[in-house]
Amino acid sequence: xxxxxxxxxxxxxxxxxxxxxxxxxxxxxxxxxxxxxxxxxxxxxxxxxxxxxxxxxxxxxxxxxxxxxxxxxxxxxxxxxxxxxxxxxxxxxxxxxxxxxxxxxxxxxxxxxxxxxxxxxxxxxxxxxxxxxxxxxxxxxxxxxxxxxxxxxxxxxxxxxxxxxxxxxxxxxxxxxxxxxxxxxxxxxxxxxxxxxxxxxxxxxxxxxxxxxxxxxxxxxxxxxxxxxxxxxxxxxxxxxxxxxxxxxxxxxxxxxxxxxxxxxxxxxxxxxxxxxxxxxxxxxxxxxxxxxxxxxxxxxxxxxxxxxxxxxxxxxxxxxxxxxxxxxxxxxxxxxxxxxxxxxxxxxxxxxxxx
Length: 356
What we know:
- With 356 residues, the chain is an alpha/beta fold.
- The chain has helices spanning 14-21, 36-42, 49-59, 89-100, 107-121, 159-174, 180-198, 209-214, 216-227, 273-282, 284-289, 310-322, 325-344; strands spanning 2-8, 27-29, 131-137, 151-156, 204-208, 239-240, 243-244, 353-355.
- The radius of gyration is 21 Å and the shape is globular.
- The two termini are 22 Å apart.
């Protein structure tokens, strides 16, 4: 049994990639993100297997009734967006106890047992599963499982499109300007995410969102080769539990699977020209390595790297208007962290990083 961990580099289609792999007869995956790092803490000292199963249910109820998951629209599946799924908890618990009771108690076997029990409760042949796909999503969550043996799928997208999409999608979804921490968090994983992954000394497969759409068959073929999987029709559709998925609510639109005409949208009004210049300057190697195009900019004096980015000013002004002193202080803190990131950034060279 081989473990692959899926991590997102921002608004980069990690859910879309997950939906392509979900449903394959040889892959065991949950139809959504599973924060296994948090779950480990919850059951760290628990010996009773039914209680461990119950803890999993309590933390992930939407996996048993998809109508509970609003953001990822798991209650709006199918061609007519009117389908959902339910998984029997009693069946899950029964299979979990059956599978895990004969295994050595450790993190890897716990993770495997949860996934196989879920597959079995969904009436899949869990004995045919070769791959565990864990959609951990956030970079920082991987630290608590770094001692396990796994490989990484890391999704990326054009950096400026990523930053632009994250700000607009989340601001539109939440109905307010995002907070300084969220903005910095996405900026840092856009810029420095791959570097952080290389520190784990694991094999990293980098997948561009653009290629998932425009070179879908090529990417699927490469993934099948990496995972040593047989090709199945389900791999060419965006589904969860074999029901068509339409994307999450952050985009506001319903996304109809693979889009051969996919095109990044960059809202240039969110950037000063100096923002674009310095982002492209520090990401010069990244942009070349992963095949992105640069936007022509006039050369800027190095000292302008200390000037606030336009997005930082938008967030600062919003909090100033609200007289939110705590968020104003955080704006200053994350501005300084961003400057430090830009000044010190250098893309780590590693043979373990491979672009699909």
